[in-house]
Fold ABC transporter ATP-binding protein.
Amino acid sequence: MTQNAIEIKGLDKVYKGSKNAPDKHALKSIDLNIKRGSMFGLLGPNGAGKSTTINILAGLVNKTGGSASIWGFDIAENPRNAKASIGIVPQELVFDAFFTPREMLEVQAGMYGVAPEDRITDELLRAVRLEDKANAYSRTLSGGMKRRLLIAKAMVHQPPILVLDEPTAGVDIELRQQLWEYVRELHAKGTTIVLTTHYLEEAEELCDEIAIINHGEVVACEPTPQLLSRIEEKEILITVSESLTEMPKALQDFHSEIKSDHLLAVKISKEKYTVGEVLNACSDAKLTITDISTAESDLEDIFLQLTSSTAGSKSDAA
Ligand SMILES: Nc1ncnc2c1ncn2[C@@H]1O[C@H](COP(=O)(O)OP(=O)(O)OP(=O)(O)O)[C@@H](O)[C@H]1O
């Protein structure tokens, strides 16, 4: 039995165009393995292909090529078991406004064939802190409550994998913390979590592995610390009293650039070099430093670094 919760191999999706719209190659033969028990982040700019990937796993979009399996079940050969192994929290807050949270969870459990005695409706309502609203019309819930209800809805059949598609978009900080608290609880109890998010700092904080997808291609997929260290760069801005016309020899080993007459920018990988080594190189070059400042790369920078090499026009990504 595979150790992966989700295995995606050569997954391809072309949305057929129409008279006025060309075909859209949304996924270009992507490979992804998501380990059982992990908290996995799928990051990418708008239009990268995150929702397409998730919707294929959910059985809502048909793939054009390749394969995907969920908890060892191929989505094409064994769609019932594949579907039973995953719970998906969609991006949009889609609801039947006249159902109460309790009814909604009961109906959903029924749709998954969960016998009445096996249902965990009350437990779920408590977990997402909606027990007080169990019998209220869903249309009376706040946006945050609706979001929590959608998580509960995705868990009615107690799947081993929970996928959250941009769960905190437009959600305030306090609620975001509550959501993550519950997601962390589920994870601690053994649920594999996959989330797509634009909040890069959240992926950094929550996920043990991150894949970055851009224009339908996987740009990176690694354990979070490895991803961070691989490209973690520090930019050092050094002002010198000498007028700079060309890069001093002692600094040529670094990724350095003359920004203006007296200003040098040196980028160093924190794994390879220290700031001290850069300063020593300046001293070897007989430069007189009058000012120095540094800036760390965060995941946002890394994300830009990784995606800019394959990035096309903004309109294509929109
Ligand atoms: N039903 C569809 N028909 C045609 N093109 C589509 C369809 N759904 C998505 N696309 C296109 O496929 C590409 C990938 O879209 P997708 O929604 O998967 O991206 P995403 O990474 O989830 O973006 P976002 O973060 O904005 O949700 C985009 O260019 C999008 O316009």
Q: What stands out?
A: The chain has a mean pLDDT of 86. The two ends are 40 Å apart (CA to CA). The pocket of adenosine-5'-triphosphate is lined by residues 15, 24, 26, 44, 46-52 (CB under 6 Å). The longest strand covers residues 4-15.
